[in-house]
Write a structure and sequence with these properties.
Elements lengths: L6 E8 L5 H6 L1 E14 L2 E12 L1 E4 L2 E6 L2 E3 L4 E7 L2 E6 L5 E3 L3 E9 L4 E9 L27 E6 L6 E7 L10
Parallel strand pairs: 1-10
Antiparallel strand pairs: 1-5, 2-3, 2-7, 4-5, 6-9, 7-8, 10-11, 12-13
């Protein structure tokens, strides 16, 4: 069973003052969010740096980002929208805005020419359990991949103390070895 270690953010812009074309052309940022992560002994460890995360457009009206679990404090800017040369900041609600491992948060930002508001709902990121039947490991393309000869990739099943090692691949300088 695959479990998401990160949190998914779906931002939807709605407005009665702006056209659909304006909303779809808007830049959507998650300002000052924690970014990056590492794997340590099969566990997901969130990074400790912050940056403005650009939400990618997946469809008209939707923008998506995958982030490490974290909480945006009440009053902090949760979503920044740049549209038609104007910047609009939507603040986190009074209860804060927690992003939890495995959850998808839908943030609906209502943006008008004179005001902005935010509404948050949570949905399960996964809709069903999917049994892992195969793993395909590609060959890195060039030195920019950061993969070095001797690097090891371990694939785990389960979570926490219940996890077991499923396979281990070693990079030999040109390809990943097949586990034995």
């Amino acid at each position: 069973v695959f479990n998401h270690a990160a949190s998914k953010v779906i931002v939807r812009l709605v407005s009665s003052s702006f056209s659909a074309a304006d909303l779809n052309a808007a830049e959507i940022l998650l300002p000052g969010y924690t970014v990056g992560a590492t794997e340590q002994h099969g566990l997901f460890v969130p990074g400790n740096q912050t940056a403005d995360v650009r939400a990618d457009r997946t469809a008209p009206g939707n923008a998506v980002a995958i982030i490490p679990p974290q909480t945006i404090l009440p009053g902090q800017t949760a979503v920044r929208v740049v549209m038609n040369g104007t910047t609009y900041n939507a603040e986190a609600p009074a209860a804060g805005l927690p992003f939890v491992q495995g959850e998808a948060k839908i943030i609906t930002v209502t943006i008008e020419k004179t005001a902005i508001s935010i509404n948050v709902s949570v949905t399960d990121w996964t809709t069903s359990d999917v049994a892992l039947t195969a793993i395909t490991v590609g060959t890195p393309a060039g030195q920019s991949s950061g993969v070095r000869t001797g690097d090891v990739m371990t694939v785990w099943t389960g979570v926490d103390a219940a996890r077991t090692e499923m396979a281990q691949f070693t990079y030999n300088g040109t390809a990943w070895t097949t586990p034995t």
